[in-house]
Amino acid sequence: MMNKVVNSVEEALEGVTDNMTLMLGGFGLCGIPENCISELARLGIKNLTCISNNAGVDDFGLGLLLRTKQIKKMISSYVGENDEFERQMLSGELEVDLIPQGSLAERCRAGGAGIPAFYTPAGYGTEVAEGKEVKVFNGKPHILETALSADFAFVKAWKGDTEGNLIFKATARNFNPLMAMAGKITVVEVEELVPAGELDPNFIHTPGIFVQRIFKGEKFEKRIEQRTVRQK
Q1: In terms of pTM, does the model score above 0.85?
Q2: Which residues belong to the signal peptide in this entry (predicted)?
C-alpha cells in the first residue's frame, strides 16, 4: 500500500512554479478543483499555460487567475462565460489555443495513454487545421492532433481513498479522469476521503496509479454558471 494523502492544499501544491503547464479538470463550473485554484491565486505564480475545457467566470474558477494576470496561455474549448478572458484575448494580452471539445478530451486522454498523436476529422477546413498534417481515411480528410500533457494536473473527485483511487459524481466525470492520466504530478481534491480498500473496485473511475497527491478539500462552493428554472 502507498499512502498518497497530503495534509493541506498548501502541501499538495509544493513544487508548482512560474512558467509551468497545468491541466485543470471540470466542465463549466462543475467538478473544478476549487481549492487548488484558490491556492494558485494566493501563491501568485505567473506565466502559466493552463489546459482546461473552459476558463471559469470572472470571479470564480480560472477567472481568479486571469484577473491577476497569472495565465499567459489558455488551451481550451468553451470560454464564452468569461468577460475578462474575452478582453485579454482580443487585446493580445492572452495567448489562446481554441480546440474542438472532443479533440481536447482525446488529446488529454492520449497524453495519459502514451499515444503521441492521432487523426480526427474535427476541425478540418477551419482555422483549427492550419499548419497541421492532413490524411484521407475512407474518403474523408482528417487532421493530425498531438497529445497534451502537463507538469501538474489538478483534479476534483467526489470520493477518493488514501491510495488515490477515485470516484467522480455525475457531470464532474468529464475532463477530470482524462487529465488525471496526463499530469506528471496529479493532485486530487476530494469531498470524501476514505481508507484504502473501502471503495468498491467495480465503481472506481480512476485508479490510484495515476495519482501522486490527494487531500480532502475544505470548502466547495459548487457554483452554477446559468441557473434556469421553470416559471411557477
Answers
A1: yes
A2: none
Neighbour count for residue 15 (Cβ, 10 Å): 11
Identify residue 231 by its one-letter amino acid code.
Q
Q: Give φ, ψ of 154 to 5 degrees.
A: -110, 125
User: Distances from the Cα of 170 to the Cαs of 22, 97, 112, 175, 208, in angstroms?
Assistant: 24, 28, 22, 12, 20
Let me know the angle formed at the C-alpha of 41 by 49 and 213, rounded to the nearest 5 degrees: 75
Which has the closest alpha carbon to 177: 118, 96, 105? 105
Locate 9 and state its grid cell: 492544499
Average pLDDT per run of 10 along the chain, which is 232 residues long?
93 97 94 96 97 91 94 92 90 95 97 97 95 97 98 97 96 93 97 96 96 94 81 82
